[in-house]
Amino acid sequence: MNLLKKYILVTVVMAIAPIASAQTLHSLYFLEGNNQRNTLNPAFTSERGFVTFPALGNLSISANSNIGLGTFMTPRGNEMVTFMHESISNEDALSKFKKNNIIEANVDLNIITVGFNAWNGTNTIGLSVRSRTGAYLPKTLFSFLKEGQNMSGVTEYDFSDVAAKTMNYVELALGHARKINDKLSVGAKLKILVGGAYAEAHADDVKITMSGDRWMISQKSSLVGSKGLNFVTDNTGEITKVDFDNFGVAGYGGALDLGAVYKINPETTVSLAVTDIGFISWNDCSTATNKNSIFEFTGFDNIAEDDNPDGSNSFDDAADEVLDNLKGLVKYHDDGKKEKTTSLYTTVRAAGEYALLNNRISFGLLASMRFGAPKVWSEAMLTANFRPSRWFNAAINGSVSNVRSSVGAVINFHPKAMNFFIGGDYLLAKFGKQFIPVNAAKLNIGLGLSFNF
Hints:
By secondary structure, the chain is mostly beta strands. It contains five helices and 24 strands.
């Protein structure tokens, strides 16, 4: 059981390291003249046509998690120890974990976007690659690692909410924004989605029951993978190998972005946008289940130092038998090919802005909420925006969210020939020597380059 605990702990900590993603900076929302802010609200129009630099039109690195390295590790003298160390009390160790612990890595890579003014508005055609990956770990998992079995009575742990999934697709977005009158602008984007790869593992019903005379593990879980992930089985249908080949188009889908901007007076503007309203249907998904696998251990019986004619077994033989039974917990059976439909992570953004000194300075409030099981991310960002000239503007901001609070800043150069921005939404994250976030991970640093025409 100690070996099982160490394996689980190492797996979780290693999962935190690659938590990086790319997405449009929220700091750009109020920066007039920036060519990429239409991804946040499709109602934003552009004075000029533009084309993004391939793969560098919108590039950023971000992190999103409600746990970090400091959740698992604590300094003790000149060394770091895990939360399982005997010097750390159960209460102190488990207080750092949430009821639901989430680690997400989301990548948005803009391949190219072209924008031009025609048909009484601004039109955009963009090609992007998107990836959504996450691991979801209940607090009971870490309670099991730290507390183990109580000295008296029966101890039960439920891991039924453990899950991991990844969704990867190509997006072709066709957008149009126009001014209805001097006060109101509206916009929409139609997105055609081509699925590249999808996989999900979910613990449907996993429990560990521990008492003085018996340990029992019961498991019911499922796996699903899109085209490219194939199961090799024996004659009983049990999966013996997983092959990764024949990758290609794994599914199709569609999505819609909607937005509106309303200027109440020359100083005050309000706006609203809903992005990524849509889904992807994955075809020919390989599916597998592990139905009601049970492992029960009541101790070693009839143990001898060596094999004896009287039928007693050596300790090595008994340990091998226990290991074989544990392996039975991860035996899956092929359930054939099926279709799977997944929703995108829909995001709602509502904002208000007030300008001063003939729009040289403005203050904005942006409220965002991203929907997607099992977690809803919400954030409020207050920004101060500076426009000292027609070709340069900048912003500083402070944000509060259900992950952590931070500050950010961005600068934006937009002369007639080009547009370049660099900055970050969350710049105060603390990192360890391995560049793993120490606390709840929320970091977004990015840059972008496009040329105007």
